Amino acid sequence: RGVRRVMYPLVETMEKYAMVKPSEVDMVIISHHHSDHVGWNVRCPASDPNGAPVATFPKPTHVYQQAEWDYPAKHFACPWRREWEVKSKPLQAAGLVKLVEGDTSLLPSVQVLSTKGRTPGHQCVRIESRGQVAYYVGDVLHTVPQVTWPEFSPIFDCCRWTPDLGKQMERPPLARDASAKQRKALLQRIYEDHAVILSPHLPFPGIGRLEEIGGGRFRYVPVAADPKTASCFSWCCAG
Questions:
Q1: Distance CA 16, CA 77 (A)
Q2: E strands of 3-160, at which residues?
Q3: Of 102, 97, 190, the residue nearest 146 (C-alpha)
Q4: Which one, of 6, 104, 102, lies nearest residue 53 by Cα?
Q5: Which of 25, 30, 31, 178 is the most exposed place for a label (fewest CB within 10 A)?
């Protein structure tokens, strides 16, 4: 998972399908520090595969929650300390990091929402454009059943660690049901906003809406070729 291991052609895919070059990106929002979410923060320069890693997106501010930054930065026992050292710390040295605390409006149409539980500083993103609303949910959702049963939490959520493991990993205090509560609240908010879900873990392409099924529960409805949704999604990628 180092900077020299390329699994997916992110930059080429962005340029081909979203028609956006890395130099044209204005802002990068980091949901959390797990390797599959910060892996493209830096990369080796094309001109020198053995050279020092450089920022994939060289101009924009990379936005983290303060708590998400502090845990690996201040605790050597943090399981993703190495990810922070390799994938995030170089951005700070380059002056490309902005730390926020809690729900924060970054632009009139872009807001980050604190959803700690998966990690101590996990955040989601609310995006509004052209009368449409979308939520990038990060790791709040991993599977479709969690939409209907938000109380289902993976054992990998750090709030689910045993007390002994939490102490060993020097994890900040977190309620054991933190991720489940955040998931339930976020789903309700998404439904009330009539919003689109953008998920990196739900079945491809990870775009869908919620349908109420009673009892305060929802089901996930994948979005097909919907022009309104496509308009909002294209703005999320290229706006």
A1: 40
A2: 27-29, 42-43, 54-55, 61-65, 97-100, 104-107, 110-114, 123-129, 132-136
A3: 190
A4: 6
A5: 25
Higher pLDDT, 65 or 52: 65
In whole angstroms, what separates CA 208 from the centre of its chain?
A: 17
Tell me, what amino acid is at 195? A
Name the pTM for this structure: 0.88
Per-residue pLDDT tens digits for 125-155: 999 998 999 999 999 999 999 999 999 998 8
Nearest to 201 by CA among 156, 134, 141, 151: 141
* Tokens 């049963």 sit on residue: 149
